[in-house]
Structures are given as structure tokens and as C-alpha cells.
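A favour between colleagues. Tell me how you read the following sequence-structure pair.

===
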Amino acid sequence: FGSSFCFVLFFIPKATSPTMGLKSDAVFAKIQAGLESQGAEVVKKTNAIFAFKIKEGKNWVLDLKNGSGSLKEGEGKADATITISDEDFVAMADGKLNGMQAFM
């Protein structure tokens, strides 16, 4: 799923800092907006479901396998699960942290 995950990160618009909550909340909001405009195209190219477990307390499921894609807060079945800190997730979305480096 390496190349699919890289595509997902490319799909994510640059993050902005929210006024409250986790910084990653803003990234997930932008992912949702992207799904609304480009979801079917991304699903065709990705064909995977990702679970994100943000260490500071939130979980998300990004379905890029079915329909026009979907994003929901919570847990669910996934092809790949990424457990990551809020700070590292935002840094990856901003292109400041390489996913493979974060994994090491």
C-alpha cells in the first residue's frame, strides 16, 4: 500500500492550524472537501481503506475503495492502519515529514 498511501498524502491539501482541537482535524476536514470534489477519481487510483489512529485520541477511517470515497471519525475495517502523532500527521500532510522516515 506504499504507493497508494503516498497518493493519499499527495491528495491532501496543505494543512492549516485550527483554532481548537487537534491540528489534524483541519487536515481531515480538507480530505473530506477533496472527497466531495474528486472522490470517485481518487477511489479509482487508490482502491484501499486506511485507518488513522491519531495518538492524541482520535481515530478516522478513510475509504478510498468504495463509491466516491468516504471519511468518518471512529474505527472500522481497513486495509492499512496508520498510528501516528497529531504533529507527525500534520507534518506529513504539509510535506515536511517523509512517511518512510516517520515509520523508521
Q: What stands out?
A: Strands lie at 48-54, 58-64, 70-73, 80-84. The radius of gyration is 12 Å.
